[in-house]
Design a protein that fits this description.
2 domains; single chain; 50% helix; 6-stranded mixed beta barrel; 387 residues
Length: 387
């Protein structure tokens, strides 16, 4: 009976390929849009993942997400260091500044200033140069995407001629102050589509416009044996500032973008559209396929096939189409993600997304199969032979 069921499914090539196409496209749309959404959201807290040394991030209580820097007085650093259970606390500067390029062009840049003494917060993956070079006069690091895109330099004396990626030794201006590129680093793509520049904390303060409050955040390492949750509460109680573990800070950032922007709604509509496409195309075509084959089911029922056997045939046909469509859709999605560079498209295919697509395809197949099964159960062989 199983062989006959598969022969019926594959034998009707027009409807079989229609069902397969509908399920494949639905899987592709659901998984692809979900992966782009996840990739985009993970970029919002990229800076937190770039600094794994910190057990806690301390910031102004009114801060809403990691890029929403609310400058604090420098005395906040000493207050945090004085809290019992803190092994070390490092300052972090973060702000958007305008860089002036040699050809006269201007480019917004995300400037990150790390602790002068320890360089905690500096990029971990260095492509050119050494992290210690940040201590040189006027030194900055530029991340690879910005160096090869927005901060490209003229390759010749003609400012309007061909351009080349920024490299070690190039010079630009930040707030009319000279900055020399001493290194190129590989960092995670950020949500803001601007180049990221790294330098030391006090040099970053010099690059930025004058301000009494220059401390963006404080990075804290707990002393050995110190409970992180207890230290977090102690810092908040004694300093009046907010402290977050990296996970808490990431979720706080993610929560802001989820609730305060229309990004989830836009991607949710695309995902829902993929599901509706599967219902409209694959579900309808599978139901029509069953209707077209009712005469065969009726004949087998007349020859003694039980309802359970016939329902098993329909279930096998739905399962086969679902597995093939799901597999093709996930394969195309994975190929799509691998074919596009990470700096051009936010795409992150986590294991939960294939599970989500599997659930969606299962609902489509089960729904269509259930309607088809009702027709088979209610089928009277007399109707088939009388017709």
């Amino acid at each position: 009976m199983r062989r006959i069921a598969l022969q019926m499914l594959f034998g009707d090539s027009a409807k079989f390929y229609g069902i397969l196409l509908g399920l494949t496209f639905a899987t592709l749309l659901i998984t692809q849009q979900s992966a782009i959404f996840v990739g985009l959201m993970t970029r919002t807290y990229a800076l937190i993942e770039e600094i794994p040394q910190a057990d806690l991030w301390v910031a102004d209580p009114t801060l809403q997400f990691v890029d929403d820097t609310k400058p604090m007085p420098v005395t906040a650093l000493d207050r945090v260091r004085s809290v019992q259970g803190v092994e070390w606390a490092s300052p972090l500067f973060k702000s958007i500044l305008v860089a002036k390029l040699p050809n006269g062009g201007r480019q917004l840049c995300d400037v990150v200033g790390v602790d002068d003494a320890t360089l905690i917060g500096a990029p971990a993956t260095v492509v050119e140069g050494k992290v210690e070079d940040l201590r040189k006069p006027d030194a900055i690091f530029v991340e690879t995407r910005g160096a090869g895109k927005q901060l490209m330099q003229p390759a010749t004396d003609d400012p309007n001629g061909p351009k080349r990626p920024m490299r070690v030794g190039d010079v630009l201006e930040l707030n009319e102050r000279r900055a020399v590129v001493v290194g190129i680093a590989e960092t995670r793509p950020s949500f803001q589509n601007v180049p990221t520049i790294y330098t030391t904390y006090f040099r970053a303060i010099g690059f930025a416009p004058a301000n009494r409050r220059t401390l963006s955040m404080v990075l804290v390492k707990a002393a050995p044996g110190q409970d992180i949750g207890e230290l977090e509460r102690r810092i908040e109680r004694e300093t009046g500032l907010s402290a977050y573990t990296p996970d808490e800070f990431s979720w706080k950032t993610l929560d802001y973008w989820m609730k305060q922007t229309g990004i989830p709604i836009n991607f949710g509509m695309a995902i829902a559209l993929g599901f509706l496409v599967g219902v409209a195309i694959a579900g309808q075509m599978f139901y029509n396929f069953t209707l077209d084959n009712l005469k065969y089911f009726g004949a087998m029922k007349a020859m003694g096939a039980t309802s359970a056997q016939l329902l098993g045939m329909v279930a096998l046909q739905g399962l086969s189409a679902g597995v093939l469509g799901l597999g093709l859709g996930l394969g195309v999605t994975a190929a799509f993600g691998l074919s596009i560079p990470a700096d051009r498209l936010a795409f992150k295919l986590i294991w939960q997304l294939p599970v989500l697509s599997t659930m969606a395809v299962t609902i489509i197949v089960v729904g269509a199969s259930s309607l088809s099964m009702l027709k088979v159960i209610r089928l009277d062989p007399k109707e088939v032979f009388s017709g």
